[in-house]
Amino acid sequence: MKPDIYLIGNYRARLGEGIYWSTKANAFLWLDIKGQKIIRYCPQTLTETIWSVSEQIGCIADDPAGPGFLAAMQSGFSAIMLPDYSSEGIVNPICNPEADIPGNRFNDGAVDKDGYFWAGSMDDAEKTDSGSWWRMAPDRRVNKLLSGYKVTNGPAFSPDGKYVFLTDSAKQTIFRGCYDKFIGIRDIAPWAQFGQGHGYPDGMIFGPDGNLWVAFWDGACLRALDSTGQVVKKVDLPVQRPTKIAFAADGTFYVTSAMVNLAGEGIDGRLHAFRVD
Question: Cα(213)–Cα(245) distance, rounded to whole angstroms?
Fold first, then answer.
């Protein structure tokens, strides 16, 4: 499937990631992890606003318990404000649960239906399995859920609230576990495995069709998986490294991408949008 794809905004990220629809901003927020930037795109006004932060930022989400946003960064969890009067984000550190692993940084994350902020860490050099999954409660308590990951991506929460899906991109594996409000996740096991030529499953989200949509780094595509983990749809993209997906209310796909370690002046690293019937 090759839909008509449109470039959105002007910013080109080294490592674009983390896109989601922010009800607080009434816009899409996404990130350039390596460029240390937060980008806001408003479809209603077609405007793009960019804030800088002082370190790598892996994921951002609306704060269920505060006025601004939550983020997981190089040095742990923080609360962030994005003032319109400044091009600098205001970062207030909350805690750094991996202060003893200086080579790690936080990567992907999301807030679940009960207001808990999930975020995965990883070795920034992508050499060791030093990554873990963490969960921060609305009262700012943090607990470790899982460990032994190399490149964390996700989570995605099933529409019925029963399951959590997590990815170790380096191992080309999507895991599924049972969602548990009190302990986070239980009974986790491999759910979908990919191999040579598929690319690496990256960011993911459940779509309006009920399928799990996954961006494939070095796969130049999105794939939709049904409830059994089978690929039922594939959308080819004009970028080599798509990273994460968000949906507008009208069903439009928004997809971030990366140009890190790629040569040339193409459209890798740009934000894209398209529609699929």
Answer: 8
Neighbours of 64 (CB within 10 A): 14
Q: How far apart are CA 247 and CA 173, in angstroms?
A: 23
How far, in Å, CA of 30 to CA of 90, rounded? 16
Local confidence pLDDT in tens for the 277 residues of the chain: 778 899 999 999 999 999 999 999 999 999 999 999 999 999 999 999 999 999 999 999 999 998 999 999 999 999 999 999 999 999 999 999 999 999 999 999 999 999 999 999 999 999 999 999 999 999 999 999 999 999 999 999 999 999 999 999 999 999 999 999 999 999 999 999 999 999 999 999 999 999 999 999 999 999 999 999 999 999 999 999 999 999 999 889 999 999 998 976 789 999 999 987 6
- DSSP 8-state class, residue 63: -
Q: Is the dihedral of CA 147, 144, 170, 52 positive or negative?
A: negative
pTM of the entire structure?
0.96
CA 122 to mean position of chain CA atoms: 13
The Cβ of residue 11 has, within 10 Å, a number of other Cβ atoms equal to 18
In single-letter form, the type of residue at position 50 comes to: I
